[in-house]
Structure formats: C-alpha cells, structure tokens
C-alpha cells in the first residue's frame, strides 16, 4: 500500500471543498501568496516582484511577504538573498578537532529568528491546500517546547489566522515575552507543567483543547509535513554549504550530519544528505534525559532538543549514531560565548579568531549541544581535515539571556571572571571525549524504534500497522512523492485566490 495513501498526515488532494473554498476566500482577503517548497529550497526561484517586496519590509513584521523569507538563504544585512546560507565554520582552536564543523544559522529566519518557522509553515500550508483547515472557523494550536509554537504563531498571524501556543511553563522568559507581543488574546498562551522534557503534559493539554472542534492541533512530533519541509529545504541548504566549502578543498567529504532530536523534523535533512552525500546521521539528546541511549528519562535545560519520547516523524531506522550531551555544559558555554570575559579568553588565551567569536552569539542552547555532539562525533570516528561535519544552530543566544543570568548566578556565584572562563573552556570544550556515543546497528535501531510504541500506539491511539510501516525505508521515500504534489497544489491555490503580490 502506498505510504502516502496510508498516512492521513500527508494529504495530497482536496479533502473538503467547502473548507478549501473558505481558505481561498480568507487568504484572498488577507492578500496572502503561498510560497512553494521549491521556492523555499531555492529562493532564486521566487518571482522578482515578490522578492522586491520582501526587501521593502521589516524581516520581523507579521507581513505576508515574509512567508517568502522562510528559508535558509536570508541576508540579514541587505534584506535580500545570499547564494549560500549564513553559516560559520568552527576552527580547531575552538573545537580541538581537525574536522571542520559548519553550523548553519537558524536565526537568519524571519519573525522568530529560528528555523522552526519553516516546520510551522510546512504543517499549515499542507493542510490549507488540502481543505483540512478553515481559517474562518479554526484556530491553529501549536504544541511545542518553545520555538515551534513561536513559528506557528508567526505563520498564523501573517495569514490572519488565530494561533494558540502550548508550551511548558519552565521555558525561557524570552519565549514568553515574544509570545505576549505576537498574541492578541492572553488565553492563547497555554502554559503546561514542567520544562523541556515534559511533552506528555503538552499532549494532555492539546487533548483537552481538541474537544472544541474549532481547535486544530498541528503537532510537530507527528505531522509528517515537518519532516518533509526539512527534507526538501534544510537538506539542500546544507548541500549548498558543503558545495561552497569544497571550492577551497575539493577533497572535502560530508562525513556527518548532527542534530538534536527535538521533534524529529530537522533530522530529515540527514535523510537527504545520506542519499546525496553519503553522510552519517547523528542524533543528539541530553544526557539528563537519555531516551535513545539508555531508555532513560529525566528533566534537562537544553531547550529545543530532547523530550522523553520518540517522535512519530523521526526516521529512527536511518540513524547511524546517538550522542548524549550534558545540559550543564551548554549552560556554562552560553556564559563563555556571550560575556566579554568569556570572549576575551577565547581570543586572547585560546587563539580563536575574533570573527568566529563574534558569531558565537548566533548559538542558543540546543545549538551549543549540536556543536558539542559534533566534536564528539569527530573524535569518535577519527575524522580529519577532509571530513566535514554539518549541523544547525536552531536559534541564537538572544533567546537565553535570562538562562545565562541564572547560570552565572548558580554556577559562578554571580561573577563570570577570567578563572571561570578558563575552567569552562577546559572542562566543557577541551575535555570533551567520546563517552555516551552509541553506534546504532540494526538491533539498537529496533530498540529505539520500539520505544515509540508506548507513546504513539498505547497513549495516542495510532494504528499499529501505520506505526510499524515506518520501519521500512520505502515508507519514507514514498513520503517524498508528496512534495511535488504539494507544490502543484500551492500553485493552484494561489491561482484560485488571484493574489499575485503579497501584502
């Protein structure tokens, strides 16, 4: 049976014409043009008049034209498009390894300064063009541990849709401050118990919200559009980074793609990179909540990385390794990277060039975790100067100013001085080893896959056959067939609205 036909989360045709027509009317009135995935994967394909319109507006405005900035190629300085995604290549002076580590910068994305806005767009647009979401009567509910719900609220508002954010109360203060600015109705910010790893509580809140038929739940952990958006857009963006770096080193091979589990969406870029470049896929999780590594559980503070369960959209059977990273390392490095004392130590004592140090503010907590896992990957596999590791910085440090203040207060008695900087560099960067690294052969992949049963079959009621078919590689390659169909549907939807230029 076709994976697409068997997966209701991947609509490829109009399911309710009345709902579809209502969505067309709504977006016509809101003057919204929907970008295709082809345009977001390669912004050179965006029509010139629309590209010109985006350069005229604030990248953080709730303007429909900013939908055409939901890609990796934004040039923040000019407001235009770069030929290569913004990225930084970390030197050996910082990482201690010969293998170059290229980090694509998610804070170049519009409105929320994080790449989760791409996942949110993919999840909503796939429903709109299938007649599964009626903006006239539905509220878009975005369950998240932080950035996805912000992305969902931003996408909703640009389309004139009411968005609801559901997230743990323990997330960073900056997330809630952003939400208060973007959400009109205070009740549309739903706080759930716990912090990053308390996803079950988010699901419980969504179950209660779903009793109201006006609430449409767009669950990033089970929406295959999240996976497909990253496969189609994030994968090619990282290929572009690799191609750019090969100009200086033609022998540079893409050895590994490293990313935190999170919802499982970003890891889809690894599926693409394994197909095109032969890259290993390395999944990252917090050592305090080592679900894949040790069937473990617990709380942690790497906001945006691991969540005490296996996402439905995570292609577990294609994972080559799992790496555990302690959250305290990330907290302390947030202080090292974003204080004058820490930066002075990196440039003066460690010999890291000032340009690289200036870019460290582009790394949020989960971004730092990805870097640490990349270093572990390089050491474990013995990678050298011709072996490129690519990873992503989901968001920047500006989302964690309050967390940094907490860390400095708790870990360094309120004073991050030169000694603290030296100790942090030595303990949290230079001393990184190869502990808590697991190569995942078939038996380990099967064990990790099976952990998802308890969430998705027993708790969430997913059909067992639909759950199990995801073991097969052909399920995932079959999903890819939806992408050109979605682009055709988006073009047809735009033709129905008759809107040629957003805003």
* Lateral arrangement of strands in the main beta sheet: 1-2-10-7-8-9-11
- What is the mean pLDDT? 95
Low-confidence stretches: 1-7
General form: globular
Distance between the termini: 42 Å
Total DSSP helices: 22
What is the structural class? alpha/beta
Using only CA atoms, what is the Rg? 21 Å
Structure summary, number of beta strands: 11
- The helical percent reads 40-55%
Strand content: 5-15%
- Biggest sheet descriptor: 7 strands, mixed
Short description:
The chain contains 22 helices and eleven strands.
Q: What would you note in describing this structure?
A:
By secondary structure, this protein is of the alpha/beta class. Helices cover 46% and strands 11% of the residues. It contains 22 helices and 11 strands. The strands form 2 sheets. A 7-stranded mixed sheet has the order 1-2-10-7-8-9-11. It has a 4-stranded parallel sheet with strand order 5-4-3-6, sandwiched between helices. Helix 12 links the parallel strand 8 (280-286) and strand 9. Helix 6 packs across helix 7 (147-158). It is globular and about 65 Å long. The model is unreliable at 1-7 (pLDDT under 50).
Give the topology:
Layout: H1 3-6, H2 17-29, H3 37-41, H4 48-55, E1 87-90, H5 92-95, E2 101-105, H6 116-128, E3 139-143, H7 147-158, E4 163-168, H8 173-182, E5 189-192, H9 199-209, E6 215-217, H10 224-246, E7 253-260, H11 268-277, E8 280-286, H12 291-294, E9 321-325, H13 327-337, H14 340-348, H15 354-359, H16 365-381, E10 387-393, H17 401-411, H18 418-430, E11 437-439, H19 442-459, H20 464-468, H21 473-479, H22 482-497
Parallel strand pairs: 2-10, 3-4, 3-6, 4-5, 7-8, 7-10, 8-9
Antiparallel strand pairs: 1-2, 9-11
């Amino acid at each position: 049976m076709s994976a697409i036909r068997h997966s209701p989360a991947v609509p490829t045709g109009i399911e309710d014409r009345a709902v579809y027509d209502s969505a067309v009317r709504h977006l016509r009135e809101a003057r919204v043009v929907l970008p295709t995935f082809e345009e977001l994967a390669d912004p050179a394909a965006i029509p010139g008049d629309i590209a010109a319109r985006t350069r005229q507006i604030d990248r953080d405005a709730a303007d429909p034209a900013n939908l055409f900035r939901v890609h990796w190629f934004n040039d923040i300085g000019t407001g235009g498009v770069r030929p290569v995604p913004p990225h930084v290549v970390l030197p050996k002076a910082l990482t201690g390894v010969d293998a170059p580590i290229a980090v694509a910068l998610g804070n170049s994305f519009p409105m929320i300064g994080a790449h989760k806005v791409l996942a949110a767009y993919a999840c909503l647009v796939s429903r709109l063009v299938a007649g599964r979401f009626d903006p006239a009567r539905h509220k878009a509910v975005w369950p998240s541990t932080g950035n996805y719900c912000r992305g969902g609220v931003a996408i909703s508002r640009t389309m004139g849709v009411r968005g609801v954010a559901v997230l743990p109360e323990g997330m960073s203060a900056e997330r809630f401050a952003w939400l208060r600015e973007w959400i009109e109705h205070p009740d549309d910010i739903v706080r759930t118990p716990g912090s990053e790893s308390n996803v079950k509580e988010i699901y419980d809140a969504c179950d209660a919200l779903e009793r109201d038929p006006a609430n449409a739940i767009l669950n990033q952990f089970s929406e295959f559009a999240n996976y497909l958006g990253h496969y189609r857009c994030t994968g090619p963006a990282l290929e572009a980074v690799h191609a750019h770096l090969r100009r200086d080193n033609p022998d540079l091979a893409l050895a590994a793609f490293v990313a935190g589990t999170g919802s499982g969406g970003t890891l889809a870029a690894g599926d693409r990179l394994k197909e095109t470049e032969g890259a290993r896929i390395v999944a990252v999780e917090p050592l305090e909540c080592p679900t894949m590594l040790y069937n473990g559980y617990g709380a942690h503070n790497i906001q945006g990385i691991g969540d005490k369960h296996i996402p439905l959209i995570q292609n577990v059977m294609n994972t080559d390794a799992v790496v555990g990273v302690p959250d305290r390392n990330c907290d302390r490095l947030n202080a090292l990277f974003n204080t004058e004392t820490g930066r002075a130590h990196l440039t003066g004592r460690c010999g890291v060039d000032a340009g690289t140090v200036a870019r460290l503010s582009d790394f949020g907590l989960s971004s730092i975790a990805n870097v640490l896992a990349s270093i572990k990957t390089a050491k474990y596999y013995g990678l050298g100067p011709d072996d490129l590791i690519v990873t992503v910085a989901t968001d920047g440090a500006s989302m964690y100013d309050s967390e940094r203040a907490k860390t400095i207060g708790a870990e360094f008695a309120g004073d991050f001085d030169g000694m603290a900087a030296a100790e942090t560099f030595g303990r949290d960067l230079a001393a990184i080893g190869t502990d808590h690294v697991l190569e995942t052969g078939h038996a380990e992949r099967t064990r990790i896959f099976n952990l998802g049963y308890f969430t998705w079959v027993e708790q969430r009621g997913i059909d067992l056959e639909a759950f199990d078919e995801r073991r097969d590689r052909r399920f995932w390659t079959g999903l890819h067939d939806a992408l050109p169909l979605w682009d055709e549907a988006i073009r047809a939807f735009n033709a129905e609205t008759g809107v040629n230029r957003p805003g």
